[in-house]
Amino acid sequence: MRKRGLLFLAACVMAAGVLAGCSSNREAAGSTTQEAETTTEAETTTESETTTEAEMTAEAKATAEAESESESSPAAAEETSSEEASAEEGNAEEEVSAEGAEGKTLVVYFSATGNTERVAGVIAEATGGDLFELEPADPYTDEDLNYNDDNSRVSQEHADESLRDVELVSATVEGFDEYETVFVGYPVWWGIAAWPVNTFIEANDFTGKTVIPFCTSSSSGLGESGELLAELAGTGDWQEGMRFRSSVSEEDVTAWVESLGL
Ligand SMILES: Cc1cc2nc3c(=O)[nH]c(=O)nc-3n(C[C@H](O)[C@H](O)[C@H](O)COP(=O)(O)O)c2cc1C
Fold first, then answer.
1. Least crowded by CB within 10 Å, which of 2, 49, 175, 256?
2. Which phi and psi angles does 259 have, rounded to 5°?
3. Measured at the alpha carbon of residue 126, what is the angle toward residues 105 and 180, in degrees to the nearest 5?
4. Which of 186, 204, 173, 206 is nearest to 109 (CA)?
């Protein structure tokens, strides 16, 4: 009986030994799996990060290259500056040809009471032309201009054509040859151009110039006033011209000038 008890105890010790060995193996196997999983994860992360970094580097490089090409590459800079230069050249050419086509403009006028003077100013402004006032050496006073008085200066001049040669302070304009276009302005007196203008017309050569008459009046139209001046001049390419009412607006005068297409 005592011998059987010893055998049982020995068997138990052996069984416990076997069980302990199995458990430690299982633990070791678990740790290997975890290690393997960690390695794979680490490798994957590193790989993906490396890829992204590589892609970003390539992208940054491409961007940098593109920027450097457009900004600092001598060829690109040359291209840009030559493009800018040719655009500037184009504008300069346009300006020159526009100026050349228009030439210089002169606005000559006689005005007894200021209406024609105002219109002349608007024309000069709109054309960028020079103004020149025809001033009688003996200026007209209000009494002189009273056409209701048969004895007034204008009435006498109207009645006797020989009295219409009105001397001007100056009948010639400095650099007249340089003007390509000449506007000639006057008030209408008894249906024709106020005669102080005649002295200027007779004193100048309009050859090669475009001449554009304009006038102001209370109610009369341009009539034959422009044609009579053209006859008196004998030279120049005279245009039909325009009559404005005495109180014409600046806008209407400007619109007319623009319609001429100078
Ligand atoms: C002597 C004289 C004659 C005029 N004859 C006419 C005329 O025949 N028809 C007309 O519509 N206006 C006539 N007027 C009015 C002027 O033509 C008009 O007031 C004009 O705008 C005046 O221009 P000014 O201010 O530049 O002198 C006459 C004015 C004067 C002083």
1. 2
2. -70, -20
3. 15
4. 186
CA angle 118–100–212, rounded 5-degree value:
35
- pLDDT of the residue at 84: 38
Distance CA 251, CA 122 (A): 9
Distance 171 CA to ligand 1 centre (A): 22
Q: Give the pLDDT confidence score for residue 37 in this predicted structure.
A: 35
Helices 2-71 and 74-102: angle between axes, nearest 10 degrees: 30
The residue nearest atom 18 of ligand 1, judged by CA position, is 217
- Angle between helical axes of 196-203 and 225-233 (0-180°, round to 10): 40
Pocket probe for ligand 1: among 155, 156, 184, 188, the residue whose CB has the most ligand atoms within 8 Å is 188
Which segments of the chain are extended strands (E)?
Answer: 104-109, 130-133, 179-189, 192-193, 210-217, 237-238, 242-245
| Residues whose CB is less than 8 angstroms from the CB of residue 212 and which lie 6 or more positions away in sequence, other chains included | 181, 182, 183, 184, 238, 239, 241, 242, 260
> For the CA atoms of the chain, what is the radius of gyration?
51
Half-sphere exposure of 133 (CA within 13 A, CB side): 14
Q: Is 10 exposed, middle or buried (0-12, 13-18, 19+ CB in 10 A)?
A: exposed
Ligand 1 environment, Cβ below 6 A: 111-117, 145, 147, 154, 187-191, 216-220, 246
Q: Which position has the token pair 């020149």?
A: 132
**pLDDT under 50 in the chain at which residues?**
1-3, 5-7, 10-101
